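Aim 2, interim progress. The first record below pairs a target sequence with its structure tokens.
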Amino acid sequence: MQRTGASTVIASVGDTGRAGTVGLVVTGLLTLGAVATLVGGAFITIPLILAVFAAVLGVFSARAVGISRRMDPGVLHVATDVLLLSSEVPATFRRRVKRGSREATSVTARLVLEEFVSYQAGTERQTQTHEVWSGPVPTQPRPDPEGVAVDVVLRIPGYPPTIDAPSNKVRWFLVVDLTMADGFTEDSRIPLHVAPAVHTPRGRT
């Protein structure tokens, strides 16, 4: 996060094409199970697991390198780095394109609320992450000779604010999905810090 003039610039995290990688993992594991069932030999399971995950890791790394060569990480220009519950905050999302088409045929955005819970189950520590809520964010394209730029209004609902405790975390993200004119697809996850709304008692200013 950095400040430029009167605005704050928040960088995206994890611009690595996660959706495609998840599909590769699932496909690889299904293939592994099918092959192991057909062959019927448990001795090949470990080598197959290593081979599948090595292949997935290789594709994942190549995808990440390809993204970094084609685009810079997405950034959000917003007036403040702390958003309040039940507020509306205008912002601008930008992503500079270094190679390929700079024209986006589709730009969609949504606000996402995720919860991370860690707890003790017997002798093991268990962790769970799930999406609590998500809602669409309207986008308004604006001219940008360097890549993609859209204006958005972040309407923060009255859900839990950001929490960062060791065993319980509540995290907000702005997720922006891009489809470029040449078919390239990618998403950006912008972390947002959301605080409780400030209450001013009557008679005070």
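The second target in this work package is listed in the same format:
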Amino acid sequence: MAYIQDTTPPPNKILNFSLQNFAGGLNNRSDQLEDHQASDILNMDFADDTLMEKRKGQAYFDDLELDGAVVFIDKFRPHQGEDILIRASEDKLYLEQELLVELEGKPHGVNHSGHYLFSDGDKLYCYGHFHQEESTYRKIEGDSIDDYVLVEVVSPDDDHDQLGPEHVEGVLTVDYDNKKIWYEPCENEYEDTYKGPNKVPENVRYLKSHNGRLYLAGAKRQDDTVFISDVHNAFYFPSAMPLQLPPNSDEIVGLEVFDNSVVVGRTRDLHTIFGNTNRPDMGVDPF
């Protein structure tokens, strides 16, 4: 069973009151209340210094029962359309009342550029609406699906074709039959010292979206490393971008966005990643 609060509560504020008239007010001694009296002020909020109203509460949503404890709650917020409630147990993830996928572990997810990306410590998934027609930079395998689709984000083949030096971006391919998506960098991206091949990290557990990039961490084999996507391309993780935090070999146990930075939690310390690029000559703060 679930309850949901769709109305965002107002921010906390301090109000100054000048109490000069004590007429009316609380009356907890009689069942007969006048119009200007109240028996209690539970769940009431001061809208201003003259008005009280019911505090923003929760409404019944549904009676879905998960197989086990609820370990994850979020909302998918597409660019168009209604928000969709996400709930998960240790082994199943639901979109409202529909089972989306069976999991290998507790998920972590984030909204990013109109899609919802999440990982269960095994695979990196992306849920959303993808391109329906092919172009120079967009390819399709299988029959396109004009609806929300769940796909796995994977690395391209090592020997994939590369667009020539006249191009500055590569090819994004959606395989609708096998439910996979991958990005193939162009020749310029391959030869760029600050980019390189696309290596999507495996078995990540933590995801955050910040300043147009996707941050991943908690990989089984590289649990001391933060992986950062290309800007505005969550499917391209340049081989030159991973950040290994000192001292090496300390396991990362969480990511969080705070102000204009990404906070990296480890067992015994915290690190903060500032900046917007790994290029020192872009005129913006480097990582």
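The first helix runs from residue 187 to 191. This observation will shape the mutagenesis plan for the next reporting period.
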